[in-house]
Design a protein that fits this description.
- By secondary structure, the protein is α/β, with parallel strands linked by helices.
- The protein folds into two domains: about 220 residues, Rossmann fold (3-Layer(aba) Sandwich); about 60 residues.
- The protein contains nine helices and ten strands.
- The longest helix is centred in the last third of the chain and has 36 residues.
- The protein is elongated.
- The two termini are about 50 Å apart.
- The mean pLDDT is about 90.
- It binds adenosine-5'-triphosphate and magnesium ion.
- Adenosine-5'-triphosphate binds next to strand 1, strand 2 and helix 1.
């Protein structure tokens, strides 16, 4: 089934632990188009997992609305939520995605048993899915007989098993090295581009985030900014250029202080001191102007 639109409006989630209240989400708004893949980045504790769990029907909102297609997720009853989870959402977690005592094939089969798919269709589908994620040869391996990357590919296959229109991936590459992370992201991109799934992918890794159509930054429970992947690259490039300029300014400040010291110790004469100081000041002003032109407040 092709992707559905995801709409999140003024979403609030407050956790109460005794007398302590944690505001995990503080009025978050988000719109993901049908068939779009977005990544969500943001510091630890900013509410990323909370958001995915509410959209995925695993956690309850304190206030606000979530719509997936025409389904009002935030007002479903418990039994409607179970159905919604089975049919509409494929959820990929950072770890513990798979049942350790079952083989790769059986792990992929489980979601289909839950919705009552016939045995014959299940086995056919498992074969197809193993082929999609390139693990046909590993069908009978248990999770601990697979590499981390292979386990995440099995998890993606299981998330695709019921042909759900929406995939939610929480740090799907969190524990993988760069090479394996790329392979896993490529399978998510394939699910998006070839199968038209709507995907929200949470990640700490900017390189992984850039694979998406859009990058959203969550901070303190609200979306702070939306960047296109090119903007993200550009803003990183600007940031590192500005860092370089700042380092050069610091160097100049040190040189000026040294010069002052030499003058005080009478190691250079007045004319030389003034000329050199003037020149260093001029270079510094030029660099500061350059930083201002980059639109950065110093
Ligand atoms: N079940 C819970 N009970 C109480 N507080 C919770 C619960 N789940 C999350 N929180 C709190 O809500 C805030 C957001 O947590 P969340 O797991 O959504 O963050 P995150 O952005 O996914 O972080 P990370 O990048 O570390 O996974 C945190 O301050 C966390 O301590
Ligand atoms: Mg998290």
């Amino acid at each position: 089934m092709k992707g559905l639109q995801i709409r999140v409006k003024d979403l609030i989630r407050v956790y109460k632990l005794g007398n302590v209240e944690v505001q995990a989400l503080r009025g978050l708004n988000l719109n993901v188009k049908a068939g779009e893949i977005v990544s969500i980045i943001g510091p630890s504790g900013s509410g990323k997992t909370t958001l995915l769990n509410i959209v995925g029907g695993l956690d309850q909102a304190t206030a606000g609305l979530v719509y997936v297609g025409e389904v009002p997720v935030t007002s479903l009853t418990a039994s409607e939520l179970i159905k919604y989870r089975r049919k509409t959402v494929g959820h990929i977690f950072q770890t513990l995605n798979l049942i350790p005592t079952l083989s790769a094939a059986e792990n992929i089969e489980i979601p289909m048993i839950a919705i009552g798919t016939s045995r014959g269709s299940r086995h056919k589908r498992v074969e197809e899915l193993l082929k999609i994620v390139g693990l046909s040869e590993r069908a009978s391996h248990k999770p601990d007989e697979l590499s981390g990357g292979e386990q995440q590919r099995v998890a993606i296959a299981a998330a695709l098993a019921n042909d759900a229109p929406v995939l939610l991936a929480d740090e799907p590459t969190g524990e993988l090295d760069t090479g394996n992370a790329r392979v896993v992201v490529d399978f998510l991109l394939l699910a998006n581009r070839e199968l038209g799934k709507t995907i929200i992918m949470v990640t700490h890794d900017p390189t992984v985030a850039r694979a998406a159509d859009r990058i959203l930054k969550i901070e303190d429970g609200t979306i702070e900014a939306a960047l296109t992947p090119t903007q993200a690259v550009e803003s990183e490039a600007v940031a590192s250029y500005v860092d370089q300029l700042r380092t050069r300014i610091e160097d100049l400040n040190k040189k000026i202080a040294q010069l002052d010291e030499e003058f005080r110790a009478a190691r250079i004469n007045g004319d030389e001191y003034v000329a050199q100081r003037q020149s260093l000041k001029q270079i510094k002003a030029g660099l500061e102007e350059e930083i201002n032109r980059m639109g950065v407040v110093t």
